[in-house]
Specification:
Blueprint (H helix, E strand, L loop, with lengths): L3 E5 L12 H11 L4 E5 L1 H4 L2 H4 L9 E4 L2 E4 L1 H11 L8 H30 L7 H23 L11 H10 L12 H12 L1 H19 L1
Parallel strand pairs: 1-2
Antiparallel strand pairs: 1-3, 3-4
Length: about 220
């Protein structure tokens, strides 16, 4: 049976690969698993049928037989656990890869999302000018720590893993801010992720949806 994921009918990211279904698409492409996509409007995401799959009315969701999942990190972990290629066979290395998945979405993404919110939704507030440097510095703190840990390695812990997939996906949200450019090894790390054939296939598939919606 081919799993089905949900994605935006018209993505707010403009086809830049930032919507969270990208993480799931990339994982499925890495392991060579075909999948179907059910596109949803913002209105449909708040209706009962979708809320039964995702109680918070977001995307992506993942359905495979009688299994239904939400949260991109949980979905990627499930895919990585079922198929070879995203988690090491060695138990300790496998645990560390999962650790990096959690670090990406819990430790690194949190200040990045705060920055995105400040720039997109709070830029007109009277206190934004004073607050923005503080928000940016919180992101820099995490990037500095991550940069030091990565060093000159290609990936976070040996071979590419689901931990790298999630971390690259999170760091991509910083591209427009210019902050990532301050850490050349992290910029190169993200570029290696984007250069992977599976990433390119996933990106092209997501972009095709946005392009079709824009011209339709």
């Amino acid at each position: 049976m081919i799993p089905t994921i949900t994605a935006f009918e018209r993505s707010p990211d403009g086809g830049k690969g930032l919507a969270r279904d990208m993480r799931v698409r990339w994982a499925l492409e890495e392991v060579g698993q075909p999948y179907d996509v059910r596109l949803l409007s913002f209105e449909a995401m708040k209706q009962g049928a979708h809320l039964a799959l995702h109680p918070f009315g977001q995307i992506p969701t993942y359905e495979d037989g009688d299994l239904a999942l939400f949260e991109s990190g949980a979905i990627v972990l499930h895919i990585a656990g079922r198929h070879a290629g995203l988690l090491p066979a060695d138990a300790n290395a496998r645990a560390r890869a999962i650790m990096w998945m959690f670090a990406a979405v819990n430790t690194v993404e949190a200040p990045i999302l705060e920055l995105v919110t400040a720039r997109l939704l709070e830029s007109d507030k009277s206190w934004t000018k004073e607050r923005m440097p503080l928000v940016e510095d919180r992101v820099r703190d995490r990037l500095k720590q991550l940069s030091a840990r990565l060093g000159d390695a290609d990936w976070l812990d040996g071979a590419f893993s689901a931990g790298d997939l999630m971390m690259v996906a999170v760091l991509l949200r910083l591209r427009a801010s210019g902050l990532l450019d301050e850490y050349p090894n992290l910029s190169a790390y993200v570029a290696r992720g984007e250069a992977r054939p599976a990433y390119k296939r996933a990106f092209d598939a997501q972009l095709a949806v946005f392009t079709a919606a824009s011209t339709g």
